[in-house]
């Protein structure tokens, strides 16, 4: 989501533009990219934290090898300085003294890493395939619209669509869960997602909902204790939120 240069994960979602000429210890520094694809979430702190949770969730749910900067696990901020490489100051050092906000986010990060480690379906040797080498249909991954139907190319191509979900077939990877379902609501308001088939005789259980109502040390439930229903059940997801479910 971020790299070794540019904004930190926290600043990506709390800054509209770079601020590299501020006073010590947060600056000054020269250079830095002007096009950062960042947004301060209208200055709403809870939404900034939610966006950071989304970013880290997508990183841990991606099939590729995840990379994040030291300090992103504790919401480190350099107050919008996006080129602090040579800024040898306390503001740019990693601190071991964490606020409550930082401690809560660190717990979230630790649990999302643990969730990734638990599920080989999130770590395929090759990208998900629709068939095996003999041409047999496997459907390792299937995309869904919020209404539970499968999107076509027109849906994917339209910039007016901002909600999407997918289901990974865990049985193809000897995963402890028969399926993993991930939904993202990119709209500003709540969207109801109709859940797909979890497997014969199985239900969907919630691992995490990144929305503010769930914020806290238990935002990621590695035991997935809450049953949210089976096929055709509806789940209301807040604006710009991420949902992760497992089937069992």
Describe this structure in words.
The chain has 248 residues and is α+β, with helices and mostly antiparallel strands. Helices cover 18% and strands 17% of the residues. The strands form two sheets. A six-stranded antiparallel sheet has the order 1-2-3-8-5-6, covered by helices on one side. A two-stranded antiparallel sheet has the order 4-7. Helix 2 packs parallel to helix 3. The chain starts with 8 loop residues before the first helix and ends with a strand. The mean pLDDT is 95.
Helix content: 10-25%
How many DSSP E strands? Answer: 8
Overall geometry comes to: elongated
Side-by-side strand order of the widest sheet:
1-2-3-8-5-6
Largest sheet: 6 strands, antiparallel
- Over all CA atoms, what is the radius of gyration? 19 Å
Helix count, per DSSP?
4
Mean pLDDT: 95
Unreliable residue runs: none
What is the structural class?
Answer: alpha+beta
User: Which percent range describes the beta-strand content?
Assistant: 15-25%
Separation, N- and C-terminal Cα atoms: 30 Å
**Could you state the oligomeric state of the chains shown?**
single chain
Q: Summarize the helix and strand pattern as letters.
A: HHHEHEEEEEEE
